[in-house]
Structure formats: C-alpha cells, structure tokens
UniProtKB/TrEMBL annotation:
Pfam families: Epimerase. InterPro entries: Epimerase_deHydtase, Lipid_A_modif_metabolic_enz, NAD(P)-bd_dom_sf. Gene3D superfamilies: NAD(P)-binding Rossmann-like Domain. Residues 10-168 form the NAD-dependent epimerase/dehydratase domain. This is Capsular polysaccharide biosynthesis protein Cps4K.
Length: 188
C-alpha cells in the first residue's frame, strides 16, 4: 500500500501469519524501515508465546541478514517483558534477539515496551482494561478491579502512532536501550 506521510510517499509492506513466506523475503530485501508489531498474547498453549514473540522475530532478522539489509528495526514489546511468566519471557527473548542483531550487524533497533494501550480499535475482554471498563459500563455489567492499589500506566493509541511516525523519521524518544512513547497517563 502507498501512503503519503509528511509529504513523503511511502510504500508499506504488510505481512502477517497468513501471508506467503516468500513475501517476507521480498519485503526484507526492499524495506527501508521495519515495524515488527507481531505478537501472540492469547494462545491456546503457552509454547505459542515463544513461537510468535521470539520465533517470528528470529525469522525476520535472519531474512534481513540474508539480504544484507541493515535498515532500522522496531519491535513492539510490553512492560510485561519484565515479568517471569511465559508471555513476559517470550517478549524479553525477542528484545534480546534484537539487541544481539544490532551488535552483530550495526543496524539501529528500536525496542518499545508499551504499557497498557487504550483508544479506538481496542477490544474489550481481550487486552485493554480501559476498553473492558468502557464496554461494561455501557452495558450495565459489573467492573472488577483485582487490586485497587495497582498503578496503571496507559498510552493512547494516537500517541503511539505519533511516536512511531517520529521513529520512522529518526526522532524516536529513548530512555537507555529502550524507546518510549513520551505521553503516558497514570491512574490507580
């Protein structure tokens, strides 16, 4: 697909788990910037976390290496990467793979550990507490808060998109090895 952003014509190559693997080869040869937004967060089996969150990243990076393409690579991780559970471990493994790739190839990498994302297109009862609360309130359903003392950090989807467009232009916000969305909302 072709898009115009900030007066520039961009071609976006979309690839997902239903795509022909040959497309990934073509895209990795031609890409000037890679946004890896792929991820598994609700699998049937816990082993699927590692396959989706680490395995695809490994395939992607190997394909970029095959073509000598050292364009910047962004990966969407999660604040859950700091936790010791199958999801967090798989996200952390994907991050480490990307950092190793950068050391090996010299490619710029951008690792975003997104907190809870809210806004349009979020699905209730899936991965957005805000969408779930809004849905339940709108339908007179009960709201359950497991631990009212927990501080939640939230990012609005439009702020995420603005940050990713900035990153595309080389103006990402960094905090050490990680990149971040500069606008974060905190609530208890």
């Amino acid at each position: 697909r072709n898009y115009g952003i900030a007066g520039e014509e961009l071609t976006i190559y979309e690839y997902d788990m239903d795509s022909d693997p040959a497309e990934l080869d073509v895209y990795c040869r031609q890409a000037d910037f890679v946004f890896n937004l792929a991820g598994v967060n609700r699998p049937q089996d816990a082993s699927e976390f590692m396959k989706g969150n680490f395995g695809f990243t490994s395939t992607l990076l190997d394909t970029l290496k095959k073509h000598g393409n050292t364009s910047p690579v962004m990966i969407s991780s999660s604040t859950q990467a700091a936790l010791d559970n199958p999801y967090g471990e798989s996200k952390r493994a994907g991050e480490q793979l990307l950092f190793e790739y950068s050391r090996e190839t010299g490619a710029k990498v951008l690792v975003y550990r997104f907190p809870n994302v809210f806004g349009k297109w979020c699905r209730p009862n899936y991965n957005s507490a805000v969408a779930t609360f809004c849905n339940n309130i709108a339908h007179d359903l009960p709201i359950r808060v497991n631990d009212p003392s927990v501080v939640m950090h939230l990012v609005y989807i439009d702020d995420v998109v603005d940050e990713l467009i900035s990153a595309l232009g080389g103006r990402e916000h960094r905090n050490g090895d990680y990149c971040e969305v500069p606008v974060v909302h905190t609530i208890t």
